[in-house]
Design a protein that fits this description.
It is a single chain. It is built from three helices and six strands. The chain is an alpha+beta fold. The chain has one domain: Nuclear Transport Factor 2, Chain: A, CATH 3.10.450. A six-stranded mixed β-sheet has the order 2-1-6-5-4-3. Helix 1 runs antiparallel to helix 2. It is globular, with a radius of gyration of 25 Å. The termini are far apart.
Length: 166
């Protein structure tokens, strides 16, 4: 008789443990799904800002760019030059840098809380001073959410060397 009670107690304890574990998994799964939903929304928002950045760049719209750039944004160009927002915006204002086209592909967004990292390839064509350019760069951009809006904190370009055709 005692053996039957002991076995029953073990089975009930085992079922309770499995039930508790399943309940925990559901909570973890729901939390994970909620985080994925938030992350997915944040990813869409950052991609939208990326489109706005490309449009404002082609238009030379310094007011729109000033809204996208955080006040302490740092730009590292493909030649290693480092510019602040205060140095970058006048380049657009006085038409020293003019883009005909600014396209991106292979774009990946990784969101971590109030920060996001965007990587991809930029294909650009335009004029810098008296020189025309038609180039491809790999880019890394870092955004942070400020007052409900994703703003660019840092941008870095690495040139993609053009392969000669043989």
């Amino acid at each position: 008789m005692k053996a039957k009670h002991l076995i029953a107690a073990l089975v009930i304890t085992g079922l309770a443990a499995v039930s508790a574990q399943v309940g925990c998994k559901r909570v973890e799964q729901n939390t994970s799904m909620e985080q994925q939903g938030q992350s997915g929304e944040a990813e869409r928002e950052v991609k939208q800002v990326e489109r706005e950045l490309a449009d404002a760049t082609v238009k030379g719209d310094t007011a729109a760019l000033a809204q996208i750039f955080s006040g302490d944004c740092i730009f590292t160009g493909s030649g290693g030059e480092v510019l602040t927002v205060a140095q970058m915006l006048p380049v657009f204002k006085n038409n020293n840098l003019k883009f005909e086209s600014f396209n991106t592909d292979d774009v990946k967004v990784r969101v971590a809380g109030q920060a996001a990292v965007v990587t991809g390839r930029a294909i650009t064509k335009g004029r810098s001073g008296n020189s025309e350019f038609n180039r491809q760069d790999r880019f890394t951009r870092v955004y942070r959410k400020e007052n409900g809006r994703w703003r660019l904190m840092a941008s870095q370009l690495t040139p993609i060397e053009q392969q000669s055709r043989r």
